[in-house]
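The following record pairs a protein chain with its ligand, zinc ion.
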Amino acid sequence: MIYGKIYYKGRVVEAGVEVEDGIIKKVGKEVKGKEVRGLILPAAIDVHVHFRDFNEKHKETIETGSLSALYGGVCLVVDQPNTNPVVDCYEVYDRRMKMAKKSSYVDYTLNLALTNKNAKNIGEIVKKIEKKYYLPAIGEVFTQHENDELQITYKTLKELSVSKLLTIHAEDPRFVGKGSPNFKYRLPKAEIEAVKKCLQIGKYHFCHISTIKALQMISKSNSTCEITPHHFLLSEDDFKRLDGLINVNPPLRSKDEVEKLLKNVGLAEVIASDHAPHTIEEKLNGSSGFPGVETLYPLILGLIVKNVLNLNTIEKLTKNPAKIFGFERYGDIEVGNYANLAIFDLKKVEKIDVEKLHSKANWTPYEGFDAVFPEKVFIRGVEALNTEVLVDKGFGKILECV
Ligand code: DOR
Ligand code: ZN
Ligand code: ZN
């Protein structure tokens, strides 16, 4: 299918990729194909997006969120269930997956929410969903949330009897106060204490870790975690620049903490965006969350070009999430996997410009940051993007059980 410089088995080699029915059949120097300029990388998996839709279409829809993902070189997203209504039962899960089937540009899967109402029969709900769909995880489970139904106690976590991966938003409510900018009221201690408690209870995947202490604790345990670009690139010092838009949970941290996180990105298994769009008006009224699915891979490549991160870091957006969440045929460029490829010209570093992005959020905390956007994206062997989108909505595949 194509031939060029390709990231294969952790190194850049010159080779061709042969594809049949969307699956990689062969990778090798002898494989002929259309020669491409730039670097052929595996397309990314973003394991943490909030595509809203349902009663919050004004913030984002699966259609606009997934379009934004495709422009950022993402081939598969894991959507989060804190929607309105919450995805807390089979019926809502099924309804949302059917919507995604019609409207997603990229491959799509969805977590199940854990609430104080469904905790007792979560096992049965999981079972029912898994008869039809591939369920990546229960989560994100909130140890702190302003909505009582979504705030889960350590006791509930302890008593839960379900053999399914849980992804945890770890902040301890005892150290979370109300107010804006929220970094003044949601202390690093909130995250550190919550992570400590959870690690005593079980093995989890922790969402968006923002403190070096928590990152180190998790890396020494059998749990895994993800880290977001905003937590290792932006700090409280961005308060003036971001003005009323700065709130995100967990909040941005001090410059010192952020520098340490950037130096220790290697300790996190996964990098994810926590794409959490709100309108600018809602942001100015205090809503927490940053859009980021489209800038995730481009920012990481911008850092790789500058040698701030090494090229293997891309495994945190490809191979590692596939392994942790069990996405078969996703992740690496490897024989037997889907031909999910993103081609980047690393010489084309550009400044992020909100006018060129596709989320409904219509703002970005990364305006002017260096980034490398994909020239082309192949999903299951189909050229889905070549500067412009070449597929229709609904092209994305929803993950069903096999
Ligand atoms: O900033 C955040 N926004 N953090 C979360 O955990 C939830 C998210 C959202 O859904 O807006
Ligand atoms: Zn969260
Ligand atoms: Zn989230």
